[in-house]
Amino acid sequence: MWREMKTRELAATAAVLLALAVPAAAQDDGMPQGKRPTVSRDAPPSSNATVNLINLLVKQGTLSEEQAAVLVKQADDEAYVARQATRDAAAKAEGAEKKATSAADATSPPGTKRVTYVPEIVKKQLREEIRAEVMDRAHKENWASPGKYPEWAQRIRFYGDIRARYEGDYFPAGNAPLTNFSAINTGSPFQEESNAPPNPYFPPSYNVSQDRNRFRFRARLGADIDLFDGFTAGLRIATGENSSPVSTNQTFGGNGGNFSKYALWLDRAFVKYQPVQDVVASVGRFDNPFWSPTDLVWYKDLGFDGFAVQAKHEIDEGFTPFFVGGAFPVFNTDLNAGLNIADLQRNNVVPVKLPSRDKWLFGAQTGFAARFDAETNLTMAVAYYDFTNVRGRLSSSCLVYLASDTCDTDLLRPSFAQKGNTYMRLRNIPDVPIPVQTFDYQYYGLASDFRPVVASAQLDLTQFNPIHVILDAEYIWNTAFDRAAVASVAVNNLGSTTDGSASVYNGGNQGWLARMAVGNKEIKHLWDWNAHVGYKYLESDAMVDAFVDSDFGLGGTNLKGYFIGGNVGLGENIWGSVRWMSANNIAGLPYKVDIVQLDLNARF
């Protein structure tokens, strides 16, 4: 009988002792769920002593309002868990008490007195078991922190940026018309033989004489997703007036004007695998995998399609060699690519499918990063790139009667280009006046192969930390360039003569850039700042012009000149920028442009 009395009294007392063991904040159910005391410098006194203490720390400047709000939320969550534990413990104790009472009443004689006694070890064990059970349930059902994202969503990190820009383009007198070969190659072919008096057809050309003011913006939104076992994925969408690989700018009033909506493009889509800390493999469309301190060779926002591997390893303290290699399809031939061959005897055309003209970029880079001391860092690298099938070739004899007719090397024309590279005619069109006259509808391809070697270096001096002094240098040399071969087929980049003799090709295959920057390395906070100045020299056929900077000289190669600019922080992750660029043609017809850009940037 004594054992049965103890059992029932033990159950009856458990709930009381467990309730006393729960923090007082957990027993306070007077505050409506989801509402918390206001935390700020001007908040009125609260009935909660902890909140009053936090408010006092905020007023004294020890805590910010954001930090205080986080502390109050944490206390709220813990109190919420404790309240649940109290309720569950009370319910279990009540059930145990009822069972024990029923059993004792069935065996005890009337008038039996019971004394409650719960050993301390039992109390402790009950508290730990119930708390563990409640916390496990809170974790699985996600009610320990109401409003928290589910586990799968916590593996996604969103990021983005917005930029508003004013750009002024100023052309001095004396510029000569520059043929827009990209407009020809992506549209109708140009009828060359009519480019003479009395009825000349002028090829499309760039604006090189009328100043222009543009207000532009750029918006990008991306997500990095942590998958499993070293796998990650990424997506990013961006604005842009077209599918240009080197610009995501959208001009206000473009796309038809009248407040028309603007297009979004898939800018990044990739999967990465990192089996160990120092090795990363990427496939899809991703950021430039090659280390490039300037935009002499690759535009800073250019995305690469294909496959790349990056590896690095610190072999000695402060000395880390690295390697990058990859293969990237630049152009893939349409499965239905073909042409129509005229059969003059039967007076009809014969459809013929063309062989593949796929274009690829293969690249490899090796270098090292060295930290000589806490204030001096040097990074150097050498890269080799091989562009295949990018040079144009003269077609076999091709009869062209209509602008829609095709020849067997038409696919070698660039599908995207800026300006600066030297071009050649692609079509070998004989003059056949009978029975139907042929016409010289012409497309153009690059006159040179491209296998550039690029040397890059950056010296970062932090003696005045957080102020950095950064010196960047880059040099490019197109090893596949054959001056005689290019000169024999060139249709542009020809120097003018004063004696009436034929113009001579005066392009080149080298380039270099030097830049110095002073200030904060990154602009993140209010009044962070930096400034830079530099000089750029990039000859016509040093690099494929489609992938270089789209701002300097309004994009492309065959340009030289200086640039200067700076940035200043206007708040957390908000900054303003100004840049001035002055560019001149190196070869060919005279061309000069000065550009000013004023930017307001924000990232999140």
Automatic annotation (TrEMBL):
Coiled-coil features, chain-numbered ranges: none
Entry keywords, A to Z: Signal
Top-rank taxon: Bacteria
Signal peptide stretch: 1-26
Statement: the UniProt record of this protein carries the keyword Signal: yes
Start and end residues of each stretch annotated as Disordered: 27-47, 92-112
The UniProt record lists the keyword Signal: yes
InterPro entries: Porin_5 (IPR032638)
Name of the protein in question: Porin
Native organism: Bradyrhizobium barranii
Lineage: Bacteria, Pseudomonadati, Pseudomonadota, Alphaproteobacteria, Hyphomicrobiales
